[in-house]
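Translate structure to sequence.
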């Protein structure tokens, strides 16, 4: 269980027992799911902490994710071996190093957050999964950093790129972020607008 899941369950059950009103529970769920979908929750709240028992897993099947992460850390530093039964955070270093990677919010919501309250609410006839399915969802586009995506710096083309913006050059002026041709405003126009520009 993650910190977000724990907080979600405590609040959902607290609202249910305090108000006995499913519409208030539904409103809270909408707010929480919207925050997650908009990436407004700390990464630390999404980290799973699992018990690791090194040396007890079969070689015939892939190990659980916590064991795989612990094994990679041991390869980097032999003294970083977790104790038998120690709870170990599952945090792949690649995820922390690459700021472009995002948590799969819909997977997290449908597979981690919804099942625990769904078991309880199904007993009273409320379908939590249907609440999520019918919830209005918005899609946001991340704001680009104009210095990183300047037309003079060609971004490397990745076969599995994460954002469509990485495949196009910027049409914004590096100075003022106005729409510009080839990433720079006409020099004469810029001198009229900003007399100190040289």
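Result:
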């Amino acid at each position: 269980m993650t910190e977000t899941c724990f907080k979600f369950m405590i609040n959902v059950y607290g609202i249910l027992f305090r108000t006995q009103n499913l519409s208030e529970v539904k409103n809270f769920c909408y707010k929480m799911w919207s925050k997650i979908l908009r990436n407004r929750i700390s990464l630390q709240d999404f980290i799973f902490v699992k018990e690791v028992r090194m040396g007890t897993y079969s070689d015939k099947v892939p190990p659980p994710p916590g064991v795989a992460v612990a094994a990679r850390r041991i390869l980097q530093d032999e003294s970083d071996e977790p104790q038998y039964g120690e709870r170990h955070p599952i945090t792949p270093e690649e995820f922390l190093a690459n700021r472009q990677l995002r948590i799969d919010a819909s997977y997290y919501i449908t597979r981690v957050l919804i099942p625990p309250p769904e078991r309880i609410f199904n007993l009273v006839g409320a379908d939590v999964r249907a609440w999520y399915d019918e919830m209005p969802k918005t899609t946001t586009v991340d704001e680009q950093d104009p210095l990183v995506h300047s037309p003079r710096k060609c971004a490397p083309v990745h076969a599995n790129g994460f954002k469509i913006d990485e495949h196009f050059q910027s049409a914004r002026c590096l100075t003022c972020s106005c729409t510009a041709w080839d990433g720079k405003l006409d020099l004469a126009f810029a001198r009229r607008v900003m007399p100190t520009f040289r």
